[in-house]
């Protein structure tokens, strides 16, 4: 009926080429004593360009510390007072300005980077003229927090 002399050996499928490239497969081949040849391609699989530009030396010689302008704290207080006089939370005010609440928070805390479009929206919604003319006197901003109606009556 059955032949007791027949031996069946079940083998695993040979590995695909992509599986042979993994670090695990390379280490297994090294343990088994199989000669392994690896080759690293220059810049392979990375989006890097290692080319120096002409401006590199110019940037290296640069000694000035460059920083962004920030909203002065006095302007932040004007925004905060205008918002609180309307009885709005920062989130309500941000919704009315179509901005994120974090932007309103940064502007009120004096951490925000000045954006004239955002400031004019806030000015219009609050009804307060912030007169954000940036006058470079010792690196400061000139602000007045008078209500818009009062400025109009003064002829400003």
Automatic annotation (TrEMBL):
UniProt keyword terms in alphabetical order: DNA-binding, Transcription, Transcription regulation
Molecular function as annotated in GO: DNA binding
Region of interest called Disordered, as start-end residue ranges on this chain: 15-54
Compositionally biased residues, Polar residues: 37-54
Keyword match Transcription: yes
The keyword Glycoprotein belongs to this UniProt entry's keyword annotation: no
InterPro entries: Cro/C1-type_HTH, Lambda_DNA-bd_dom_sf, MBF1_N
Annotated Pfam families: HTH_3 (PF01381), MBF1 (PF08523)
Regions annotated as coiled coil: none
GO cellular component: nucleus
A single GO BP: regulation of transcription by RNA polymerase II
PANTHER family: ENDOTHELIAL DIFFERENTIATION-RELATED FACTOR 1, ENDOTHELIAL DIFFERENTIATION-RELATED FACTOR 1 MULTIPROTEIN BRIDGING FACTOR 1
Protein name: Uncharacterized protein
Annotated organism of origin: Apolygus lucorum
Organismal lineage: Eukaryota, Metazoa, Ecdysozoa, Arthropoda, Hexapoda
């Amino acid at each position: 009926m059955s032949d007791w002399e027949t031996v069946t050996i079940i083998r695993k499928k040979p590995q695909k080429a992509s599986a042979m490239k993994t670090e695990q497969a390379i280490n297994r081949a090294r343990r088994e004593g199989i000669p392994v040849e690896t080759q690293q391609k220059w810049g392979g699989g990375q989006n890097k360009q290692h080319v120096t530009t002409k401006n590199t030396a110019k940037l290296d010689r640069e000694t000035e510390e460059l920083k962004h302008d920030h909203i002065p704290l006095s302007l932040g207080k004007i925004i905060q007072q205008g918002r609180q006089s309307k009885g709005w939370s920062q989130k309500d005010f941000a919704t009315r300005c179509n901005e994120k609440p974090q932007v309103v928070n940064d502007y009120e805390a004096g951490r925000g980077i000045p954006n004239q479009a955002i400031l004019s929206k806030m000015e219009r919604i609050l009804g307060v003229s912030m007169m954000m003319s940036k006058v470079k006197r010792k690196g400061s901003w000139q602000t007045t927090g008078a209500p818009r109606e009062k400025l109009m009556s003064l002829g400003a």
